[in-house]
Write a structure and sequence with these properties.
elongated; about 160 residues; alpha+beta; 2 helices; 4-stranded mixed beta sheet; 5-stranded mixed beta sheet
Amino acid sequence: MRSRTANWFECKIRYEKVMEDGLQKKVTETYSVDALSFSEAEERITEEMSSYISGEFTVQDIKKAPYGEIFFSDSELADKWYKAKLQFITIDEKTEKEKRSSVSYLVQAGSFNGAVKNIDEVMGGTMIDYVIASVAETQILDVFEHAPSTKNKPESEE
């Protein structure tokens, strides 16, 4: 398990997909990309999808993701993405009352129980008291992390 904090955007792509029965059907699929702006998110998803989709496709929607951190699984069976809402528990020193603050994460896992296990694995290494408020499967098919570009780097002079 590893986690990655970044600016995530959810992108919806619409295209004609060849189904298992051989018929073509218009589908809309959701992906998450690491980008600094909406225009960079559009550029990144277009670049990533052009290698997977042979025909034309359109970027239907781009929105800022409700999570800032993603937990990636090392398991090959982890083929689903779950949105997890965690509540961090702190004690107000003045009033001595319990205070909860909610944070959302995207978790890669093969099942609901796997998602809970992955959350506990990552959060178990922290000193934060937390409660898992909700875990729900998303429609996200894949996550594209930012890879450092080599095309803009100056060549070393010899």
